[in-house]
Amino acid sequence: MYELNSRKSKNIYVLLLIMILVAFFTIIAYTLVLSNKKYEPLSNVTAKTIVREKVEEVNIEDVLENITESTVGISKLKDIGTTIFLEHSIENLNLGSGIIISDKGYILTNAHVAGDIYSICYITLKNGVTDNGTVIWSNEDLDLAIIKTNIKNLPVAKLGDSDEIRLGSKVYAIGNPLGYELQRTVTSGIISGINRTIKVENENKKTYFEGLLQTDATINEGNSGGALINEYGEVLGITTLKIEESEGIGFAIPINIVKPIIKKINETGKFEEPYIGIYGYDKEAVAYLSQNIELEKGIYIEEIDKKGPLKNSNIIKGDILEKIDGIKVETMNDLKKYVYEKNIGDEVTLTIKRNKKKFEVKIKLEKL
């Protein structure tokens, strides 16, 4: 009896020893596997990396020198003084900046700098050459305008892709703050926000600027109409306004909104603006109107021009515009950019949502 129990005890000890050894080697093997294992995110989202093909190493000093060649000074009056030490010279001259977008003499700036269509501006190039310029297109809602000068073979700025902008991207603002004595001043910063909506009140009129780029690059009086560029010297936007009460909060209009207009003006020398007759807001802007408006996507229609293309349609205030020709629109800039690519008389199909039901409306674009 004793011998049997002793044999059993030995077997138990052997079995325990084997189990300990197996556990020990298992731990070692698992540790080795973990040491060679690469990190894999738990989410299915794959990080997006923007890769530029065949881009040589850039020298930012050279980039900035090149873009200043394409930067111009703009004033509305010719000879009232150009010094920052002259009282009210900025206000009197309506000084601003612009960027050359074509060697045919086209210059892009703000509407509040250039003024109304067919009005006259005074252009000053980097080399000191001056010329009269005529405003051939101006849009107050976008705060953009294009001026035509007779000077040929101008140094043209490169246009970037504002749809590819990411938060934190390095940017530079170029313009003429405070007058011609400080012309072509460069400030640097980052993209602080994308698709911003800003309410501007002027003489009892409320204007909502949508889809703006926010930057902490310093923007002063006179910078308006100048370029916001990336480290490759590509124009991402046109500087338009800043928050007076706070430092480091300025805004620029994304360059992509005006690309269809630039293309048509380069090809034909003019831009006849197709008109859709919708006044609306995106989901960020509707917060200014009412906290009771629920908008997950699309454009909230605030008003229809009763004399425009939609005068005979059944679209009403409160409807949601979700698509145009089957393409999703999230902001008024999305809608405007698509319409600007069309021509007067072209037919488009709008997808409208009302009370969870959808319907389509076909219209022809008219001349503004």
Question: Can you describe what's shown?
Answer:
- With 368 residues, the protein is of the alpha+beta class.
- The protein has 3 domains: 70-149, Thrombin, subunit H; 158-266, Beta Barrel (Thrombin, subunit H); 272-367, Roll (Pdz3 Domain), CATH 2.30.42.
- Helices cover 21% and strands 35% of the residues.
- It contains 7 helices and 21 strands.
- The strands form 4 sheets. Strands 1-2-3-6-5-4 form a 6-stranded antiparallel beta barrel. It has a 6-stranded antiparallel barrel with strand order 8-9-10-13-12-11.
- Strand 19 (347-354) and strand 20 form a beta hairpin.
- The longest helix is centred in the first third of the chain and has 35 residues, at 2-36.
- It is globular.
Which short descriptors sum up this protein?
Thrombin, subunit H; 21 strands; alpha+beta; disordered N terminus; Pdz3 Domain; 6-stranded antiparallel β-barrel; 6-stranded antiparallel beta barrel; 368 residues
What's the gist of this structure?
By secondary structure, the chain is of the alpha+beta class. It is 21% helix and 35% strand. A hairpin with a 4-residue loop joins strand 11 and strand 12.
Helical/strand content category? alpha+beta
Largest sheet: 6 strands, antiparallel, barrel
User: Quick one: CATH class of the largest domain?
Assistant: Mainly Beta
CATH architecture of the largest domain: Beta Barrel
**Total E-strand runs:** 21
Helical content band: 10-25%
Structurally, the number of domains stands at: 3
H/E element string?
HHEHEEHEEEEEEEEEEHEEHEEEHEEE
